[in-house]
Amino acid sequence: MDLGEFALIDCIRNQYKVPEGFLGIGDDCAVIPQCDGLETLLTTDMLMEGVHFLIDDVDPYSLGWKSAAVNISDIAGMGGIPVASFLSFALPKKLSDTFLKEFLRGYKDLSDRFDCPLLGGDTTSSLDRLCISVSVLGNCPSGLSRKRSAAQEGDIICVSGCLGDSAAGLQVILKGLERGELESELVRRHYRPVPRVGEGIALSKLPGVHAMMDISDGIGSDLRHILDESHKAAEVDTASLPLSDELKEACQKYCWDPVKLALNGGEDYELLFTVSPEAYSEGLPVLSYPIGRVVSGDGIRWIGRNENFMGFRHF
After folding, report:
1. pLDDT tens for residues 169-192?
2. How many CB atoms neighbour CB 234 within 10 A?
3. Does the N-terminal or the C-terminal CB of the chain have fewer CB atoms within 10 Å?
4. Which residue, among 304, 307, 275, 253, has the nearest Cα to 204 in the 3D structure?
């Protein structure tokens, strides 16, 4: 397919008129207004064997955990409270009952952590590969959901935690590296992300926090979503990216570029948000790392590196 991921999304988006008061394609979640002072958030994601995970490497518990986590993270990215999930499978015959039971145990453990019960779904057969589709419903007080389109010139760009660990864990998997304590910890961070639900709720209550989303495809891609929807540009200081000690050690050991992993790798599932300088100076209720600033214009200027980081692209 030559259309490309973003062009395909725009092609679909342009064919449907969004009802007044609703929010459709373009954010982490659709937003559906309710009559009791709440907005309903709805997100859906698909994980495909061979694209999002390697069935011979991932343990089924972790796969179940991650399947729930990446969707609940979308709710967190808009400042919502997860309410319920729906799980659908396309199952190949090669999967054992033990695999499925462990998958469901991991899915339930992550769901229970955020009080987000599984309420339904669907199952069907697959010729050869496992496909997982999850939808999550959430709630947010009317007017408090944080959208990608709200960034303002002068805003400070922040992230809620370290970047690149998941990408480094993926490198360990893809390169078949021997897994000592360091490598195993990075793989664990790749397979078992923890959505920042509490952080998202806290940030959504601050008027000075403008745009927000979760980091799934890397800053190089996800920050562009915010900028495109807000019609703004950005300057990012690559020397300010928060990097864990484990990532630094792995990069030194294997001669990896930590900046590329942090900006292109994705699947960190931290929060990416923009906040006014005034609100930032007063102190934020969550751990946050400033990495840049929203400016007028187009695109992203990567201070400290003479290259363009694009993040992960699905096709």
Report:
1. 999 999 999 999 999 999 999 999
2. 25
3. N
4. 275
Render pLDDT for 84-94 as a digit per residue (tens, 0 to 9): 888 999 999 99
Other C-beta atoms within 10 Å of 298: how many? 10
Specify whether the CB–CB gap between 164 and 247 falls below 8 A: yes
3-state SS assignment for residue 82: strand
| Cβ–Cβ < 8 Å for 19, 25 | no
Pull the structure tokens for residue 267: 């699947």
- Distance between CA atoms of 164 and 149, rounded to whole angstroms? 25
Rounded CA separation 49/129 (Å): 6
Give whole-number Cα distances, 138 to 31, 39, 101, 219, in Å: 9, 8, 26, 25
288 class by beta-carbon count within 10 Å (0-12 exposed, 13-18 middle, 19+ buried): buried
The answer to whether 212 touches 286, Cβ cutoff 8 Å, is no
Residue ranges of alpha helices (H) inside 114-234 are 165-175, 181-191, 197-204, 219-230
Look at the chain and count its residues: 315
